[in-house]
Amino acid sequence: MASFQLITRQFKKRFSMAQIKMHLLVCGGTGCRASESRRLVDELNSQLKINNLEEEVKVIITGCFGFCEKGPIVKVIPDNTFYTKVKPEDAEEIIKEHVIKGRKVTRLLYENPETKEHISDSKHMGFYQKQVRIALRNCGFIDPENIEEYIIRDGYAALGKVLGEMTPAAAIEVMEKSGLRGRGGAGFPTGLKWKIAAGNKADQKYVVCNADEGDPGAFMDRSILEGDPHSIIEAMAICGYCIGATKGLVYIRAEYPLAIKRLEIAISQAREYGLLGKDILGSGFDFDINLRFGAGAFVCGEETALIHSMEGKRGEPTVKPPFPAQSGYLGKPTNVNNVETFANVPVIYIKGPEWFSSIGTAKSKGTKVFALAGKINNVGLIEVPMGTTLREVVYEIGGGIKDGKKFKAVQSGGPSGGCLSEKDLDTPIDYDNLIAAGSMMGSGGMIVLDEDDCMVSVAKFYLDFIVEESCGKCAPCRVGNKRMHETLEKICNGKGTIEDLDYLKNLSHVIKDTALCGLGQTSPNPVLSTIDHFYDEYLAHVVDKKCPAGRCKSLKSYVINAEKCVGCTLCAKNCPTSAITGEKRVPHLIDQSKCIKCGTCYEKCKFGAIEIQ
Question: Is residue 592 classed as helix, strand or coil in its secondary structure?
Fold first, then answer.
């Protein structure tokens, strides 16, 4: 413990003596990198060099700031100026105006959509005001490839405290008191999970971090690994000490190259500083971490399937018990937690379990990270206290629905989650409330849908994903979900019947009751929740043969309004099947037997004469 305190003091002294007057923090997450943030960094450094400011101003590549809708983002420290949608071409103006002259570049500041006021500090933006960042506490604030910056922000202090002051049993008790539940979807109490693993004796135990994250639209774990990899390493080491494990494994999908790179750098640095390896901090505790790569199979997010994949076997789940805590990786006791769960661990030991449990609801403590996507103005990564309502997330943090459209539904919990309607907007977000409403927390995907979305088609989309990703081990999932998908396809094609709706409900309950693993047991949720909340929409498809949202191709037809048609022939010239006929300056007609409903005529008409029925 003494050695850890010494290096912390050395780092703080070094930082205090530094002559850096200003830091330019640039988002280096995957999303912003795709929008040229790497070239932006090069341009900023180039301008600093031209103006001889390299020793006074430093450009730092950070993790994700969360406000993806406004990226790339540049944050100026110490005045906390927050620039949005910054392009490489803006670098010169930022250096000359802000850095040299001390004048903010107004056009790059965030503009309040209601008041049109320019806001320079993120603390006053609606997107951030209701957020409480625990798991994301360091993302956007530190260089994820610099261990010293992590240590300066109390990094590895929790590990030092646990190793120097606590027995494994006492450390587990802290985790139990905190009330932290697994953030991977199941919500199992983390402290209890560690306690069970600790109670199983073996010559070798393992700590596994599940970084598979296969939900469509989800990027919570990826962003934490890209922005704060040391927090995961520290948490895994603490878990290892608590359960008696000396080896850690991170199972991460190979599609996350940036997260892998930064994690590898962090592991190497931790070893170099004596925070991984033999006799950590002189405590006599040994622990090291290695990576295992997944090929992107959704089912491998389930812990037993994940373990089989790491062992080089087919990624299929097994019946529990035995649980991984009893017989996991290589048949040894294994504790599996996901990235977000581990990200909460260090701060609990620093600030105390009482502090953590004071946040959230009675049965769901702390915060939850969500990937907010879909028809929402503020797409991004958010972290809110448990108990925050869906309305607050959609309208206050998310900024409402795009293009002034009407809210229709929010889909939470990934492909196995459910769709909640407008009447659920005041539901406080926690594990139990979401399940009661017909959805689930899942790992944290949250997709907002508007009036133009067809809920039957949405259910079919998620079933399509489930069918593709099912491991096929059990018949209820392998066959049952295929039959459900075929029925939904039939309904969307205008061939469905009332009997099909009863069939869907009955089959859904059979699959939920008989499927082998969590993937199969929750796979009917998109169907059941949409039937429950949007039954009228299903009826319209099977009785009226109409899609109210106009999304189902087979259920819509294009007609020409004779009063608006001027006979310009533009639609006829662009029709790929020659379904449109008519003379010049005379209203045209569409032959429905030839029309393939591609929508080309609708897009090309300049007079609004093409209507969808």
Answer: coil
Single pTM value for the model:
0.90
Contact 523, 477 (CB under 8 A): yes
Cis-peptide into 257, omega within 30 deg: no
H or E element, residue 383: strand 380-385
Q: Could you give the CA distance from residue 544 to residue 60 in angstroms, rounded to a whole number?
A: 59
Identity of the amino acid at 483: R
CA dist., res. 104 & res. 94, Å (int): 8
- Helical ranges in 515-599 per DSSP H: 518-522, 525-533, 535-539, 570-574
Cβ atoms of 431 and 363 closer than 8 Å: yes
pLDDT tens, 530-589?
Answer: 999 999 999 999 999 999 988 898 888 889 999 999 999 999 999 999 999 999 999 999
In the block, residue with structure tokens 């774990």: 221
Position 168, amino acid: P
Residue that has been written with the tokens 């903010």 in this structure: 104
| Ranges assigned E (strand) in 490-605 | 558-560, 580-581, 589-590
CB atoms within 10 A of CB 545: 14
d(CA 57, CA 61): 13
User: Do residues 407 and 422 make contact, with C-beta atoms less than 8 angstroms apart?
Assistant: yes
Contact of 76 with 95, CB cutoff 8 Å: no
pLDDT of residue 565: 94
Q: How far is CA 533 from CA 198, 437, 453, 539, 552, in A?
A: 44, 10, 14, 12, 19
Residue owning tokens 């009332």:
498
Predicted local confidence at residue 497, as pLDDT: 94
At residue 379, the pLDDT reads 93
Which residue has tokens 């900023």? 44
Within 10 A of 141 (CB to CB), how many other CB atoms are there? 21
HSE at residue 578, side-chain half, CA atoms within 13 A, is 0
Phi, psi of 289, rounded to the nearest 5 degrees: -130, 140
Q: CA 373 to CA 516: how far, in whole Å?
A: 30
Q: Work out the burial of residue 447: count CB atoms within 10 Å of its CB; fewer than 13 is exposed, 13-18 middle, 19 or more buried.
A: buried
Amino acid letter, residue 407: F
Type of residue found at 573: K
By residue count, the chain amounts to 613
Where the chain has pLDDT below 50, the residues are 1-2, 17
Nearest to 353 by CA among 339, 337, 366: 366
